[in-house]
């Protein structure tokens, strides 16, 4: 489905996670409830970051990021029979935060259901304040995305 309202991807998505729609994810109108998209994207975030962690397992000790902003634009309804994937990429990295771009896409048709931008800030729990993005994470993300951050 071609929809001119959907922004073109500015970079390739190197990470994809299939997600399963459950019976209770469907709302009274017969389509996926908008809050479920964010749950799908949270799962994809965890899998995305896990690949950079020791042993490939997600650990809050290895990653001290907190979500400070989520912006999601919806383009097409999703129904219970659709197979979905979540595409995830690091869009940018600044001194103390990074922005992820994610898309929920129908695996069969390529129909983009929504595009989400999440700003995550680095956080030092000892000082309870923001912290810089480490050189290690900047390098890991640059290597994976094949773009310099």
Please supply descriptive tags for the structure shown above.
149 residues, alpha+beta, 6 strands, 6-stranded antiparallel β-sheet, 19% helix, 2 helices
Topology:
Elements: E1 15-19, H1 34-50, E2 65-74, E3 84-93, E4 97-106, E5 112-124, E6 129-130, H2 135-145
Number of helices: 2
Number of distinct beta strands: 6
Order of helices and strands: EHEEEEEH
Tell me roughly what share of residues is in helical segments: 10-25%
- Distance between termini? 32 Å
Biggest sheet: strands, sense, closure? Answer: 6 strands, antiparallel
Radius of gyration, CA atoms, in whole angstroms: 16 Å
Low-confidence stretches: none
Tell me the structural class.
Answer: alpha+beta
* pLDDT averaged over residues: 92
Shape: globular
**Proportion of residues in β-strands:** 25-35%
Description:
- This protein has 149 residues and is of the alpha+beta class.
- It is 19% helix and 34% strand.
- The protein contains two helices and six strands.
- The chain has helices at 34-50, 135-145, and strands spanning 15-19, 65-74, 84-93, 97-106, 112-124, 129-130.
- Strands 1, 2, 3, 4, 5 and 6 form a six-stranded antiparallel β-sheet that branches.
- A hairpin with a 3-residue loop joins strand 3 (84-93) and strand 4.
- The longest helix has 17 residues, at 34-50.
- The protein is globular, with a radius of gyration of 16 Å.
- It starts with 14 loop residues before the first strand and ends with a helix.
- The mean pLDDT is 92.
């Amino acid at each position: 489905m071609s929809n001119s309202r959907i922004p073109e991807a500015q970079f390739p998505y190197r990470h994809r996670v299939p997600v399963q729609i459950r019976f209770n994810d469907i709302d009274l109108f017969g389509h996926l409830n908008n809050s479920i998209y964010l749950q799908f994207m949270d799962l994809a975030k965890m899998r995305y970051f896990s690949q950079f962690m020791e042993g490939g397992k997600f650990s809050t000790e290895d990653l001290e990021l907190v979500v400070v902003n989520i912006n999601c634009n919806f383009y097409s309804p999703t129904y219970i029979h659709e197979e979905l994937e979540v595409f995830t990429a690091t869009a940018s990295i600044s001194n103390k935060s990074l922005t992820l771009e994610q898309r929920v896409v129908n695996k069969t048709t390529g129909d983009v259901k929504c595009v989400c931008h999440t700003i995550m800030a680095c956080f030092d729990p000892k000082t309870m304040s923001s912290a810089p993005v480490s050189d290690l994470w900047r390098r890991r993300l640059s290597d994976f995305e094949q773009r310099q951050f």
